[in-house]
Amino acid sequence: MPSLSSEDAANARRQLRRRRTQAFLFVVPLLVFILFAFVAPITTMLFRSVYNPTVAELVPETLTMLEDWEGETLPDPAVVTQMAIDMKRMAGNRTSGKFADEINRALPGMSSVIKSTARGLRRADDAELAANGAEMLLAENDRWAKPATWRAIRSAGQAYTSSYYLTAVDLEYDAEGEIVMRDTQIYKQLYTKTLKMALIITGLTMLLGYPLAFYMSQASPATANFLMVFVLLPFWTSLLVRTTAWIALLQAGGVVNSTLIWAGLINEPIELLYNEFSTILAMTHILLPFMVLPLYAVMRGIDASFMRAAISMGSNPIGAWYKIYLPMSLPGLSAGALLVFIISVGYYITPALVGGTDGQMISNIIAFHMQVSNNWELAAALGSLLLILILVLYWLFDRFVGTDNLKLG
Fold it and tell me: Tens of pLDDT along 50-87?
């Protein structure tokens, strides 16, 4: 074949670059959206989980003087005096509450001590503080004389710390700097309960969704389209409305209990709401379409003649389904299971409304620390561990099942 001239080759390269540039410009809005809606929030969360400069910015001089302190006895009077000066300054610029919250997380009970001390030193004379600040601070509360208080201040003053990740797995640093178990074991139990509930919800959606998807794939197009309307119907209804409907059904005077009492099956209402049962039931109903749709998409492409051929060769219907149909439908089943499991692990609204205390999941505790306790660093650590847990489970799924065969439609 004749080769292109240098001018033709240059024109071809320019055309190729132009097409690539045009294709890239079409993708730019999607890349920007992913950057600001996905990459940036996750990066910020990971950074906030190990970075908290609040105390370091509020009392930098005191922390600098505490660097050489051995930690066993009361710090030098100069350090205590500097703390008294910082307390007056924070009381004046109204940052003592923020300082109190941070120290209280490291040493419970210090919030009231710091706030009362700040009020007591607010109107103190600067010259008097410089001369007798140590005595004035120690006179405000006995806890200022305890080395544990100053260890907590020095520990909270570290801008970069792993303590939030330790708290997220119910661990902490002791006075000697060793990692020990916390007195209250909360978060590991919540992670375990979240995974357990997510697995139960995934299993229930599989048990309910597989027969429905199978029937829809074998039915006539008119019947399948009619049933598809009911599968998609939840997407046309507000999530809040669907969850509230379950509250009306399951509450003590709701439809379910009233019907059971009317039928004589029970004598008094059963506790069906604000527990794990209500959370699992409501989330199974909400997430069922995410199982049915991938299954139906795969089953619709399976030729029914395979089953007929297996039965004609002597296999019974159950054996034919187990050896022929089930393996062919596994891509849709795996996709639906993975989708339902990942969504349910991080679900928030439904457990918050119908779960009560027993039905809470780890996402509800993350929201609590963000909205109520304002402990964003711990919330970021809990969220980061949840992200890592999901990625590990996804890796295990890919290793033992394989994500190459997943089909969502």
Answer: 999 999 999 999 999 999 898 889 999 999 999 999 99
Angle ∠(152,156,161) on CA atoms, nearest 5: 125
pLDDT of residue 103: 93
- Kindly report the CA angle at 227 between 311 and 239, in degrees rounded to 5? 130
Rg (CA), the chain: 31
Do the strands 179-181 and 171-173 form a parallel or antiparallel pair, or are they unpaired?
Answer: antiparallel
Query: What's the rounded Cα separation, in Å, for the pair 387 and 165?
Result: 13
- CB atoms inside a 10 Å sphere around CB 98: 15
Tell me if 74 sits within 8 A of 80, measured CB to CB: yes
First-to-last CA distance in the chain? 44
At 209, list the tokens. 């969704």
- The type of residue at 3 is S
pLDDT tens-digit map of 150-195: 999 998 999 999 999 999 999 888 767 788 898 888 999 999 999 9
Task: Please report, for residues 119, 143, 291, 339, the alpha-carbon distance to residue 378 in angstroms, rounded to integers and kept in the order given.
Answer: 29, 26, 33, 27
Q: What is the pLDDT of residues 220-252, one digit of tens each?
A: 889 999 999 988 888 888 888 888 899 989 988
The torsion angle over the Cα atoms of residues 232, 363, 199 and 201, rounded to 10 degrees, is -30
109 Rama sector, left if φ>0, alpha if ψ -120 to 50, beta otherwise: left
Q: Residues near 10 by Cβ (< 8 Å), separated by ≥ 6?
A: none
**CB 150, CB 107: distance < 8 Å:** no
Residue 173 phi, psi dihedral angles, 5° rounding:
-90, 135
Cα–Cα dist 211/93, whole Å: 65
- The Cα–Cα gap between 204 and 337 comes to 10
For 307-324, the pLDDT digits (tens) are 788 888 877 888 888 888
Spatial CA neighbour of 160 closest among 39, 289, 275, 56: 56
Beta carbons within 8 Å of 169's beta carbon, 6+ residues apart:
187, 188, 385
C-alpha span between 266 and 56 (Å, rounded): 61
Q: Are 228 and 300 in contact (CB under 8 A)?
A: no
Q: How far apart are CA 124 and CA 90, in angstroms?
A: 13
